[in-house]
Amino acid sequence: MRNLPIAQEAANYLRQARRICVIGCSGGGKSTLSRKIAAALDLPNHSMDREVFWLPNWIQRPRVEQRAILSEIVKADRWLLDGTNPSSFDIRLPRTDLVVWVRLPRWRCLLGVYRRARRHIGRHRPDMADGCVEKWPDREFLSYIWNFERRFAPRITQEIERYGPNVPVVTLKSHGEMAQLLDLAGLPH
């Protein structure tokens, strides 16, 4: 995996990238960061939760359909894809110029999920598919966040090395690092 330090080199990659994957654990701020980057760089912003994974009422779209939708999105010359799902890295990474990995501590992700739920509970959240009303986080979802680094980060690293070994990766471990990257790239936040 080709890690870039948060410095001018990473900022230059960000400014010049035409196809960006923003990945990370739920609640870390990847969707907010994705919206900022996409708006600043005038990239079509595709939320995988909204466009790929979910159908109304929290029904998961069949995997074959998910892969077909992703295949169509990545054919374009310019895009930003907000979503992790390493099982689709074989489709996304060969066309990706830059991976931005939001890798905040789990306590921060849990706090982010609770704040998001409080803000949107009982309503549709813009980053979700129509008909997916925000609900209070259940034990399964909280467990996913709590165990993300141990259970899922190794597979993410493995799949990046497998399908995008030469794709630069910028790892952001705090909201301060997110702001620093945007500042260095001269992007608003």
**Can you give the mean pLDDT?**
95
The tally of structural domains comes to 1
Strand ordering within the main sheet: 1-8-7-2-6-3
Tally of contiguous helical segments: 9
Order of helices and strands: EHEHEHEEHEHEHHHEH
Strand element count? 8
Biggest sheet record = 6 strands, parallel
For the record, the CATH architecture stands as 3-Layer(aba) Sandwich
> Briefly, what CATH class?
Alpha Beta
Assign the CATH topology.
Rossmann fold
Looking at the structure, what is the overall shape? Answer: globular
**What value does the Rg take, in angstroms?**
16 Å
Indicate the structural class: alpha/beta
Distance between the termini: 28 Å
Strand content: 15-25%
Describe this structure in words.
With 189 residues, the protein is an alpha/beta fold. The protein has a single domain (2-185), classed as 3-Layer(aba) Sandwich (Rossmann fold). It contains nine helices and eight strands. It has helices at residues 8-16, 30-41, 48-53, 63-75, 89-92, 106-120, 139-146, 148-163, 175-185, and strands at 2-4, 19-24, 45-47, 54-55, 59-60, 79-82, 98-102, 168-172. Strand 4 and strand 5 form a beta hairpin. The longest helix has 16 residues, at 148-163. The model has no long low-confidence stretch (mean pLDDT 95).
Key terms for this structure?
six-stranded parallel beta sheet, Cytidylate_Kinase-2, P-loop_NTPase, globular, alpha/beta, AAA family ATPase
Compact summary:
By secondary structure, the chain is of the alpha/beta class. Helices cover 50% and strands 16% of the residues. 35% of the residues are buried.
